[in-house]
Amino acid sequence: MKRLEGLAPVLDANTRVLVLGSFPGVASLRAQQYYGHPQNHFWKILGALWALPLPAMPYAERVAVLRERGLGVWDVYRACEREGSLDTAIQNAELNDFAAARRECPLLEAIAHNGGESFRHAKHTEPFGLPVYRLPSTSPANASWSFDRKLAAWAEVLRRHGVA
Protein backbone atom coordinates (compact mmCIF):
# COMPACT_ATOMS: atom_id res chain seq x y z
CA MET A 1 0.00 0.00 0.00
CA LYS A 2 1.29 3.44 -0.93
CA ARG A 3 2.32 5.93 1.77
CA LEU A 4 0.34 9.17 1.45
CA GLU A 5 1.41 12.61 2.68
CA GLY A 6 -1.16 15.10 3.96
CA LEU A 7 -1.55 18.79 3.19
CA ALA A 8 0.27 21.72 4.77
CA PRO A 9 -1.72 23.44 7.51
CA VAL A 10 -3.78 26.55 6.84
CA LEU A 11 -3.08 28.59 9.95
CA ASP A 12 -1.21 31.67 11.09
CA ALA A 13 -0.75 34.03 14.02
CA ASN A 14 -4.41 35.17 13.71
CA THR A 15 -5.94 31.69 13.93
CA ARG A 16 -8.46 31.53 16.79
CA VAL A 17 -10.15 28.20 16.03
CA LEU A 18 -8.34 25.25 14.48
CA VAL A 19 -10.46 22.65 12.66
CA LEU A 20 -8.75 19.27 12.59
CA GLY A 21 -9.92 16.70 10.09
CA SER A 22 -8.53 13.18 9.93
CA PHE A 23 -6.68 12.95 6.59
CA PRO A 24 -7.51 14.29 3.11
CA GLY A 25 -9.54 12.05 0.85
CA VAL A 26 -8.50 11.04 -2.65
CA ALA A 27 -10.18 14.06 -4.30
CA SER A 28 -8.56 16.47 -1.82
CA LEU A 29 -5.10 14.97 -2.28
CA ARG A 30 -5.48 15.04 -6.05
CA ALA A 31 -6.53 18.71 -5.97
CA GLN A 32 -4.13 19.56 -3.11
CA GLN A 33 -7.06 21.29 -1.40
CA TYR A 34 -8.72 20.76 1.95
CA TYR A 35 -12.23 19.37 1.57
CA GLY A 36 -11.84 19.04 -2.19
CA HIS A 37 -14.64 16.50 -2.71
CA PRO A 38 -17.61 18.38 -4.20
CA GLN A 39 -20.05 16.55 -1.89
CA ASN A 40 -18.17 17.48 1.30
CA HIS A 41 -20.17 20.01 3.30
CA PHE A 42 -17.20 21.94 4.79
CA TRP A 43 -17.17 24.85 2.32
CA LYS A 44 -20.97 24.86 2.04
CA ILE A 45 -21.34 25.14 5.83
CA LEU A 46 -18.86 28.00 6.10
CA GLY A 47 -20.40 29.70 3.08
CA ALA A 48 -23.82 29.54 4.73
CA LEU A 49 -22.46 30.86 8.04
CA TRP A 50 -20.58 33.72 6.44
CA ALA A 51 -23.08 34.45 3.63
CA LEU A 52 -20.37 33.92 1.02
CA PRO A 53 -20.32 31.74 -2.13
CA LEU A 54 -17.30 29.81 -0.83
CA PRO A 55 -17.86 26.60 -2.84
CA ALA A 56 -17.81 28.64 -6.08
CA MET A 57 -14.71 30.67 -5.19
CA PRO A 58 -11.21 29.67 -6.26
CA TYR A 59 -9.42 27.69 -3.56
CA ALA A 60 -6.83 30.42 -2.85
CA GLU A 61 -9.66 32.88 -2.16
CA ARG A 62 -11.41 30.39 0.16
CA VAL A 63 -8.17 29.96 2.11
CA ALA A 64 -7.75 33.74 2.33
CA VAL A 65 -11.27 34.01 3.79
CA LEU A 66 -10.43 31.35 6.40
CA ARG A 67 -7.34 33.29 7.43
CA GLU A 68 -9.27 36.60 7.57
CA ARG A 69 -11.91 35.02 9.80
CA GLY A 70 -9.40 33.38 12.16
CA LEU A 71 -10.22 29.80 11.18
CA GLY A 72 -7.37 27.35 10.67
CA VAL A 73 -7.56 23.94 9.00
CA TRP A 74 -5.31 20.94 9.38
CA ASP A 75 -5.52 17.19 9.93
CA VAL A 76 -4.59 14.92 12.82
CA TYR A 77 -2.55 12.68 10.51
CA ARG A 78 0.57 13.89 8.72
CA ALA A 79 0.88 10.71 6.69
CA CYS A 80 -0.70 7.28 6.42
CA GLU A 81 -1.38 4.31 4.21
CA ARG A 82 -4.88 4.04 2.81
CA GLU A 83 -6.80 2.74 -0.17
CA GLY A 84 -9.72 5.00 -1.05
CA SER A 85 -10.94 7.84 1.15
CA LEU A 86 -12.61 6.25 4.18
CA ASP A 87 -11.15 6.88 7.62
CA THR A 88 -11.71 3.22 8.47
CA ALA A 89 -9.09 2.31 5.84
CA ILE A 90 -6.30 4.43 7.42
CA GLN A 91 -3.30 2.36 8.47
CA ASN A 92 0.14 3.12 9.90
CA ALA A 93 -0.75 6.76 10.52
CA GLU A 94 1.68 9.42 11.77
CA LEU A 95 0.29 12.30 13.83
CA ASN A 96 0.96 15.93 13.02
CA ASP A 97 2.91 18.11 15.46
CA PHE A 98 0.07 19.85 17.31
CA ALA A 99 2.50 21.61 19.66
CA ALA A 100 4.05 23.37 16.65
CA ALA A 101 0.60 24.56 15.57
CA ARG A 102 -0.04 25.84 19.08
CA ARG A 103 3.20 27.84 18.99
CA GLU A 104 2.33 29.34 15.59
CA CYS A 105 -1.15 30.40 16.75
CA PRO A 106 -0.82 32.58 19.87
CA LEU A 107 -4.49 33.64 19.64
CA LEU A 108 -5.77 30.06 19.42
CA GLU A 109 -8.76 29.63 21.72
CA ALA A 110 -10.36 26.36 20.58
CA ILE A 111 -9.81 23.11 18.69
CA ALA A 112 -12.70 21.66 16.67
CA HIS A 113 -12.36 18.06 15.51
CA ASN A 114 -14.20 17.42 12.24
CA GLY A 115 -15.65 13.96 12.87
CA GLY A 116 -15.03 10.95 15.06
CA GLU A 117 -11.70 9.77 13.66
CA SER A 118 -10.17 13.17 14.30
CA PHE A 119 -11.76 13.36 17.76
CA ARG A 120 -10.12 10.05 18.73
CA HIS A 121 -6.97 12.17 19.02
CA ALA A 122 -8.45 14.85 21.28
CA LYS A 123 -6.15 13.53 24.00
CA HIS A 124 -3.31 15.17 22.04
CA THR A 125 -5.01 18.58 21.87
CA GLU A 126 -6.66 18.72 25.31
CA PRO A 127 -3.34 19.40 27.12
CA PHE A 128 -3.30 22.88 25.56
CA GLY A 129 -6.00 23.85 28.07
CA LEU A 130 -8.35 25.06 25.33
CA PRO A 131 -11.92 24.00 24.66
CA VAL A 132 -11.93 20.92 22.41
CA TYR A 133 -15.07 20.10 20.40
CA ARG A 134 -16.28 17.13 18.41
CA LEU A 135 -18.15 18.41 15.37
CA PRO A 136 -20.13 16.19 13.01
CA SER A 137 -18.05 15.14 10.05
CA THR A 138 -18.63 17.19 6.92
CA SER A 139 -17.73 14.14 4.82
CA PRO A 140 -20.26 12.75 2.34
CA ALA A 141 -19.81 9.45 4.21
CA ASN A 142 -21.63 11.05 7.18
CA ALA A 143 -25.05 10.73 5.57
CA SER A 144 -26.85 10.19 8.89
CA TRP A 145 -26.58 13.95 9.59
CA SER A 146 -28.50 16.32 7.33
CA PHE A 147 -26.83 19.47 6.06
CA ASP A 148 -29.02 21.62 8.33
CA ARG A 149 -28.14 19.56 11.40
CA LYS A 150 -24.41 19.80 10.59
CA LEU A 151 -24.77 23.54 9.97
CA ALA A 152 -26.42 24.09 13.37
CA ALA A 153 -23.70 22.16 15.23
CA TRP A 154 -20.87 23.96 13.43
CA ALA A 155 -22.56 27.36 13.87
CA GLU A 156 -22.87 26.88 17.62
CA VAL A 157 -19.15 26.20 18.09
CA LEU A 158 -17.83 28.77 15.63
CA ARG A 159 -20.10 31.53 16.94
CA ARG A 160 -18.97 30.80 20.49
CA HIS A 161 -15.45 31.74 19.40
CA GLY A 162 -16.28 34.66 17.11
CA VAL A 163 -15.48 33.07 13.77
CA ALA A 164 -19.04 32.64 12.48
Short description:
With 164 residues, the protein is of the alpha/beta class.
Characterize the structure shown.
With 164 residues, the chain is an alpha/beta fold. It has helices at 26-31, 42-50, 59-69, 98-104, 116-119, 147-160, and strands at residues 3-5, 17-21, 71-75, 77-81, 91-95, 110-114, 132-135. The strands form 2 sheets. A 4-stranded parallel β-sheet has the order 3-2-6-7. It has one domain (3-160): Uracil-DNA Glycosylase, subunit E, CATH 3.40.470.10. β6 (110-114), α5 and β7 form a beta-alpha-beta unit. The mean pLDDT is 96. The longest helix is centred in the C-terminal third of the chain and has 14 residues, at 147-160.
Main traits of this protein?
164 residues, alpha/beta, Uracil-DNA Glycosylase, subunit E, three-stranded antiparallel sheet, 6 helices
Q: What's the Cα radius of gyration?
A: 15 Å
pLDDT < 50 runs, ≥5 residues: none
Number of strands: 7
Largest sheet: 4 strands, parallel
What's the number of domains? 1
The arrangement of helices and strands along the chain is: EEHHHEEEHEHEH
Global mean pLDDT? 96
**Oligomer kind:** single chain
Proportion of residues in β-strands: 15-25%
Query: What is the CA–CA distance across the termini?
Result: 40 Å
Classify the secondary structure makeup into a structural class.
alpha/beta
The CATH superfamily turns out to be Uracil-DNA glycosylase-like domain
How would you describe the shape? Answer: globular
Number of helices: 6
Describe the SSE topology.
Blueprint: E1 3-5, E2 17-21, H1 26-31, H2 42-50, H3 59-69, E3 71-75, E4 77-81, E5 91-95, H4 98-104, E6 110-114, H5 116-119, E7 132-135, H6 147-160
Parallel strand pairs: 2-3, 2-6, 6-7
Antiparallel strand pairs: 1-4, 4-5
Helix pairs in contact: 2-6
